[in-house]
Amino acid sequence: QTDSFGNNWNGMVYGVGGGHLIAGWDAPGFDTDPVWSVHDVRTGRLQASMTCGYDLSNGVTGKNRESEREYPVVTSPEGHYLAAGPVAFDLQRKKGICLAGDGNRKSIAITSIRDDGTAYGEVQEDSVADDAYPVVTQVDLTAGPDSAKVLEGVEVPHVTSVKGAGLFTG
């Protein structure tokens, strides 16, 4: 895909949730991780940004940048946290939390977040049999990716409420 000047696009709006949008772009000419940012939808103001090894080309299914995204955008009930797969943001502290695999750990895709920063997700395996159950994790987004712990025999809530209850789908 190209812009009106014939140049290739190096970024995209990934998704919107809770009055914020997540955008990502590759730094042209550099061999670095993509830059991810979150912006206020009404004003466009930058809320937080970070580099994260979640590749933009993995963030879109197919070759078209306008295709369906790999992960939905999820927010905590009061909007303090926002995530799309392994890209997460603490909007109160204006900080990004990268949960992409880095060689020492596997990627974690966030599926729901409580207002205290407790996030639930699934470990993204490189090769998992279709009938295998996902590995469920809990991550404290205020402590960072090293706080992840496996939860055995637990289902991940689809959403959480302000009072801490979870919605489970079956």
Question: Widest sheet: strand order?
Answer: 1-2-3-4
Uncertain segments? 1-5, 59-65
The separation of the N and C termini measures: 39 Å
Q: What is the overall silhouette?
A: globular
Beta strand %: 35-45%
pLDDT averaged over residues = 81
Query: Counting H and I runs of at least 4 residues, what is the number of helices?
Result: 0
Class derived from helix and strand content: mainly beta
Question: In this structure, how is the largest beta sheet organized?
Answer: 4 strands, antiparallel
Tally the beta strands.
14
Q: Describe it for me?
A:
This protein has 170 residues and is mostly beta strands. Helix content is 0%, strand content 38%. It contains no helices and 14 strands. The chain has strands at 11-17, 20-25, 35-40, 46-51, 73-75, 81-84, 87-90, 95-98, 107-113, 118-124, 136-140, 149-150, 159-160, 166-167. The strands form four sheets. The chain has a four-stranded antiparallel sheet, with no helix packed on it. Strands 5-6-7-8 form a four-stranded antiparallel sheet, with no helix packed on it. Strand 13 and strand 14 (166-167) form a beta hairpin. It starts with 10 loop residues before the first strand and ends with a strand. The model is unreliable at 1-5 and 59-65 (pLDDT under 50).
Give me some keywords for this one:
170 residues, globular, four-stranded antiparallel sheet, disordered N terminus, mainly beta
